[in-house]
Amino acid sequence: MANTASFGERIIQALTTPPPRFPGGAYEVDGILGEGGMAIVYRARDMRRPRAVAIKVLRAEIAQLIGTTRFLREIAMTAAFSHPNILPLLDSGEITDDLGRVMPFYVMPLVEGETLHERMVRSGRLPVGDILRITREILEALQYAHSKGVIHRDIKPANILLSNGHAVVADFGVARPVALRNAIDRGEPDVTLVGEIVGTPTYMAPEQAHGNRVVDARADLFSVGCVMYEMTVGVRPFDTPIPQLTHSRKMQGIYLPTNNHRPEVPAALDEILERALKPEPDDRFRSAQEFIDALSLITVHSKPAPSVAYRRRQSWMKWGGVSALVIAGVAAAAPMAMKRFRPTASVVTAPGSDLARVAVLPMEPLTPDSLLGILANGFQTDIIDELAQYPALTVISKNGVVQFRGNASSTDSIARVLNVGSIVTGDIRRNGDTVRVTVRLIDGASGEQRSKADAFGSVRDLLAVRSSVLDSVTSFLRKAIGSEIGAAQRLIVRSAEAWELHARAKELNDVQQGVGTGSSVDQRTRNAVIDSLLQRSAALDELWPVPLNTRALVLLQRATTEDQQALQNPSKSTQLLQSGRELRQQAVASANEALSRSTNNAEALSLRGKARFALWRNATTRADSMRAAAEADLQTAVRRRRDMASAWSDLSVMLQLRGEYAKSRDAAENALKADAFLKNAATVVGQLLFTSLATGLTDEARRWCNRGKSQYPTFPEFWGCDLTILGWTGTTKPDVGRAWNALRAAEARDSSNMLAFGWASRRLFVAAVAARAGYPDSARAIVTAVRAALPDGVPNANVDYAEAYVRTLLGERAAAIPLLQRYLVVNPSWREQLGKHPWFESLRGDATFQALTASR
After folding, report:
1. CA distance linking residue 251 with residue 259, whole number of Å
2. Which of 60, 67, 343, 418 has the fewest CB atoms within 10 Å around its CB?
């Protein structure tokens, strides 16, 4: 079990973390120098030699992800480095925490001075002479490391130390062996793990940010270009108020020339930056030495760049053979050339008319700190949850906006895709113990910033920061919409540590569910960490229901995973299904505890209803009381909060299984109204297709079929939906030729898997059309052919179900009922629905059928 209490304390109270003990008492810790997402850095004394040192200790969670042996092997590659501009590695090893978890460490000299980041915070942009000297010294350090086959991968101002007037590159702790160009050309493997992303996003090269397998020395040179630009201008080259636009600019190489900020900057320096910041590695300097050679041509007194908005690019700037040409500030160049300087305005056709439709985009951490990632995710979640309760607002769910995390999309394209008029975005940074959150309201149509607010606070008073952020966003929207947006009930959290542990658990679970970003890790270990964090959070604030709700949700997700694994592993299915039942029972208990804290909590009711429904549906013997309790929970949840999309979706399935098709259709429509980006939205559309047919709304069914094919082209249920509509009993004229054409169209999308429901059922729908058209012999021949094609002795309940329909159309009721009996052995939850299903209306007077479909 993870040490959740100490983990939470390290997140929130790093300054009070007990100092580690090193083997043999070699080092005595004096205090903490800093902390980040990967490690804590301690000030210490080397007890064997009279010197001060800095010791970087990797967090146990990070060591578990990357492997201690691997880390120590790779850090040892830098132990032999000897260069005046590289902070040397003095020692390395491993220690253990109180739970026996291994934490690797490495030791460096303690350099007196400041980091480049601290220098720029203190004095802003640097003199040109300092820029040239510092950049050269960084490059000389990298040229040495690259010649030894190592890339740094995290060049940034915080990792550049300024000591005695010289730059020293520190923190090769994330360095990796580099596949140099000749090795890449030979196809030799890289030691770097596939898909692993190491570095700081703001300074990271595009190929590095995308997790490319091959990241070579030119990624370091891109980072140096970012640092050089920041020293020159005082801001980073690709920064914008919107993180998604920032990412887009980096991918396209869009930034303002330095002369827009500093007309006195030498033109040659701007041209060097032009090449260093190319999105494509092949367009950059080939080596650090080539970068150094270019710098050597510049002096402090070199001719400055022309003072124009977008000046002509020479030397290395070519786009499809066309140079960018700007005369008197007016572009006269190819469109691709202009993309280098600024994004092209797009015409927005749909968004912007309804400011009450709101999207809250992922916040961007602006400083490398694990705490900020947690806070960014937590603040975004809280803003969405709070705004969703306002009656006048329609808020896009987190499932809808997650597609724009790290996505190169402009504001107008985001507004168009989500059909929103208001976009909330923001960033978060930390300076010592102070956290600063900036939130902005962006007009979806124009991209203009309508409002902006900053929230400041201590890391020890995050609840005040959270409250200020939520108040700012709601104030923005009240002013923008110009009317009363209603009221929301904010759930009060009294413990900052509880809130933060919950945010950490949510972040880890988002990664596991594919909503967030992060490295893969053993699923059981991650589940244990998530569960421990949530239980600790719930214990720290005994009145706050949210962590208990989240725990119930996580337990239900795990139960679904167990069910899926049971299907894939028949030999372990009994054990896995039992595990799923136990997890759902725990989810009910967690939801009950949440309701004991907040009796009207709609989310807790929804989760309890979902758990109870699944327990009823998967039970070997079913009690109607369990189903009734589940339905009562779901009905109450959606009455209290109409935006509970998941509850509407579950309620729709439950009503369908009762044969209440019209109510089921209404609930499914409400689910999509509440959240068009519901995780199971494709299934909900399929539900609407089915219930429309069941209620005789053929045109509606055709609309949902077309929507499913358009929006979810890889979802198999829609491959044959045209045939499903043709085969369904209704007012449509039976046309056997059209049915075969529809089948062939579906077959073009699907392989002929004889055990798949789709293959057999499609042919049986053709048989149904033939039976309705008055060709009984053809219908029977198709049924016979389908049965002959299936493997001998392999039961297929779905084929039994579809054949029973055909037999009923043929008037062969005696043959239909045994097929339905076999179907219900596998799908007993369908018992009541079959009694009301329009396919089997002609069987309702049969006593055997009545007994078969009676409630139990």
Report:
1. 22
2. 67
Q: Determine, yes or no, domain membership for 397.
A: yes
Closest CA to 437 of 364, 510, 349: 364
Which of 7-16, 299-308, 818-827 is predicted least confidently? 7-16
Q: Kindly state whether residues 105 and 155 are assigned to the same domain.
A: no
% of the chain exceeding 70 in pLDDT: 79
As beta bridge partners, residue 86 has 169
Distance set, CA 335 to CA 95, 327, 409, 421 (Å) = 57, 15, 18, 28
d(CA 360, CA 829): 39
The enclosing domain of 361 has a CATH number of 3.40.50.10070
Residue 384: inside a domain:
yes
Domain count, the chain: 5
The residues, any chain, with a CB within 8 Å of residue 205's CB and separated by 6 or more, are 215, 218, 219, 222, 223, 281
**What does the CA dihedral 534, 538, 541, 546 come to, rounded to 10 degrees?**
80
Contact 440, 469 (CB under 8 A): no
Residues 226/200, Cβ–Cβ less than 8 Å:
no
Segments forming the whole domain that contains residue 83: 4-109
Tell me the pLDDT band of 325, cut-offs 50, 70 and 90.
very low
- Please enumerate in sequence order all residues whose Cβ is within 8 A of that of 594, keeping only pairs 6 or more positions apart, or say none: 545, 546, 548, 549, 552, 601, 603, 604, 607
Query: Are 84 and 230 members of one domain?
Result: no
In the 8-state DSSP scheme, what is residue 830?
G
Is the per-residue pLDDT at 150 higher than 80? yes
Structural domain contains residue 714: no
The answer, yes or no, to whether residue 523 has pLDDT greater than 50, is yes
Average pLDDT over residues 459-481: 81
User: 622 and 737 share a domain?
Assistant: no
Residue 221 in this model has a pLDDT that exceeds 80: yes
Same domain, 792 and 759: yes
| Same-domain check for residues 265 and 291 | yes
pLDDT score recorded for residue 244: 55
- The whole-number average pLDDT for the span 56-67 is 77
Cα separations in angstroms, 635 against 440, 546, 657, 683, 691: 37, 20, 16, 20, 19
In a shared domain, residues 135 and 279:
yes
Q: CB-based contacts of 277: which residues, under 8 Å, 6+ apart? A: 222, 225, 226, 229, 237, 253, 255, 284
**Bridge partner residues of 169 (DSSP):** 86, 160
- Name the pLDDT band for 353 (thresholds 50, 70, 90): low
Minimal CA–CA distance to 539: which of 585, 593, 587?
593
| Residue 335 in domain | no
Same-domain pairing of 478 and 505? no
What integer pLDDT is reported at residue 65 of this predicted model? 67
Residue 795 has pLDDT above 70, yes or no: no
pTM: 0.57
Report the alpha-carbon distance of residue 53 to residue 452 in Å, rounded: 43
Last residue of a domain, one of 58, 91, 109: 109
Question: Do 139 and 233 share a structural domain?
Answer: yes
């601290």: which residue's tokens? 118
**The predicted structure's pLDDT at residue 652:** 95
Mean pLDDT of all residues in 411-428: 84
* Amino acid 392: pLDDT: 78
What is the average pLDDT value for the chain, to the nearest integer? 79
